[in-house]
């Protein structure tokens, strides 16, 4: 039976008022985030006045390939993935770029801020966004602990060691690093778009 325009519009109005099954809607997935401020130098590690951001449960539970999921997420949000690897077991930092680390396998204890820094336990689904200058190293880890690492576009991270004579020059370099245009987890909203750009 053909519907005239008036009956069609009436039918649409009735359908709009009917309850829809839950599966018809995308289920929002909240990503919890913590901040960690490490703004004082530690030896030759400058650290940063911007907080470290730690996102939890970023990977949905039904994900087939955790690494590919994180790489796609970072790439989509303007942070091209550069490597899959654990964290070096010596204190180091990057004076020219922020870095995002996404845990896709295992768990580990990382030390952030330098040799006297804070210990952070990370596991699958955690993403750590480090501002330039934040010292980091792996203290311990499961055998299968692995990360996806990414930086803002066209960035190749330098690797700086804890060298006190270089502190002044590296602090100056860290302070000159521009804020990224997007957040690797949330894109143009939330995350570093709020926590870093309000500084």
- Sum up the overall morphology in one term: globular
In DSSP terms, counting alpha (H) and pi (I) runs of 4 or more, how many helices? Answer: 4
As a percent range, the share of helical residues equals 10-25%
Let me know the average pLDDT.
89
CATH topology annotation:
Jelly Rolls
Unreliable runs, pLDDT <50, ≥5 residues? 20-28
Tally of DSSP β-strands? 11
Radius of gyration from CA coordinates = 22 Å
What CATH architecture would you give?
Sandwich
End-to-end gap: 63 Å
Note the run of SSEs as H and E.
HEEHEEEEEEEEEHH
The biggest sheet amounts to: 6 strands, antiparallel
Which SSEs are present, and which pair or pack?
Elements: H1 5-17, E1 32-36, E2 52-56, H2 66-76, E3 81-85, E4 92-93, E5 99-105, E6 107-112, E7 118-123, E8 127-130, E9 136-141, E10 146-150, E11 160-161, H3 167-175, H4 192-195
Antiparallel strand pairs: 1-2, 2-8, 3-10, 4-11, 5-8, 5-10, 6-7, 6-9
């Amino acid at each position: 039976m053909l519907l005239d325009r008036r009956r069609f519009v009436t039918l649409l109005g009735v359908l709009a008022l009917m309850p829809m099954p839950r599966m018809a809607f995308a289920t929002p997935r909240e990503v919890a985030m913590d901040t960690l401020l490490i703004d004082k130098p530690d030896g030759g590690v400058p650290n940063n006045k911007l907080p470290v951001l730690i996102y939890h449960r970023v990977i949905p539970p039904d994900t087939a390939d955790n690494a590919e999921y994180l790489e796609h997420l970072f790439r989509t949000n303007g942070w091209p993935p550069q490597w899959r690897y654990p964290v070096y077991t010596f204190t180091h930092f990057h004076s020219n770029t922020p870095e995002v680390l996404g845990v896709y396998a295992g768990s580990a204890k990382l030390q952030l801020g330098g040799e006297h820094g804070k210990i952070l336990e990370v596991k699958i689904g955690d993403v750590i966004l480090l501002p330039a200058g934040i010292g980091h190293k792996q203290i311990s880890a499961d055998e299968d602990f692995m990360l996806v690492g990414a930086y803002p576009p066209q960035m190749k991270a330098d690797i700086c060691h804890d060298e006190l004579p270089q502190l002044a020059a590296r602090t100056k370099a860290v302070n000159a690093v521009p804020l990224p245009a997007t957040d690797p987890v949330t894109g143009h909203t939330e995350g570093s778009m709020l926590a870093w750009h309000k500084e």
